[in-house]
Each structure stands twice: as C-alpha cells, then as structure tokens.
Specification:
Structural class: mainly alpha
Number of domains: 2
Largest sheet: none
Number of strands: 0
Radius of gyration: 16 Å
Order of helices and strands: HHHH
Shape: globular
Length: 125
C-alpha cells in the first residue's frame, strides 16, 4: 500500500479537512471578535466558507476531478449529512454523560472516514 493512489488520496483528504477546519475557526473568530457577529451567524458563515474551500480543494486535489454541478450538489449533501451526524453523535455523548473528548473522538472516528468513503464512491464516481 506504500505510495498507493488511495493512500495519497486519503492523506490529501485529511490535509484538506485540517485546512477547512482552520479556515472555519479563523472566519468565526474574526466575525465574533472583530465584527461583533453572533456565534450562530459567525459559525454559519464560517461553515459555508469552509465547505466551499473543502469542495474546491478536495475536488481538484484530493480526488483529481473537475468542478461540476452534479458533484457540487453531492458534496453539499455529504457535508450536510456529516454535520447532522456530528450533531447526533455529540448529543448522544452529552446525554450519556460522556466528556466532550468522547464526543469529539466519536465524530472524528465516524464522520471523517464515512465522508471520505461517500465522496469516493458517490460524489466523485
């Protein structure tokens, strides 16, 4: 599996995810701290920015595909499903009395690989 195309794709997907997370945090912090935007509006705008960035970089770099209407809608669908699953897992961790790190670990271990596989097999097929 050394230097396999799938491993390279997975690593690129991870780098894109980290950069999208950093963008989300940066946009949210600027909007909340410097503009005075509410947390809800700031995080909504930050999510939109990070999702657009993630779509562009994953499409062109991680999955070596082209920008198309079909895959943008599929990408958005997977992203929204991932956000919903993140909320559900976080809620389950909270109501079971687990600490926040358990919820974060559940999200990272479930949502990230599920998103990768769904993008690989559906968004970019």
């Amino acid at each position: 599996m050394k230097n396999s195309p799938e491993l390279i794709r997975l690593i690129r997907f991870g780098v894109c995810g980290l950069s999208a997370t950093a963008l989300h945090v940066g946009v949210a912090v600027v909007l909340i701290s410097h503009v005075g935007t509410s947390q809800l509006l700031a995080n909504t705008a930050a999510f939109a920015c990070a999702t657009c960035w993630s779509y562009l970089v994953n499409t062109l770099w991680s999955f070596s595909s082209s920008l198309r209407v079909r895959n943008v809608w599929r990408f958005i669908t997977v992203s929204l499903a991932g956000a919903a699953l993140t909320g559900l897992l976080s809620y389950l961790a909270q109501i079971t009395g687990s600490g926040p790190w358990v919820g974060i670990a559940m999200v990272v271990c479930a949502v990230t690989p599920l998103s990768f596989v769904t993008h690989r097999r559906w968004t970019y097929r």
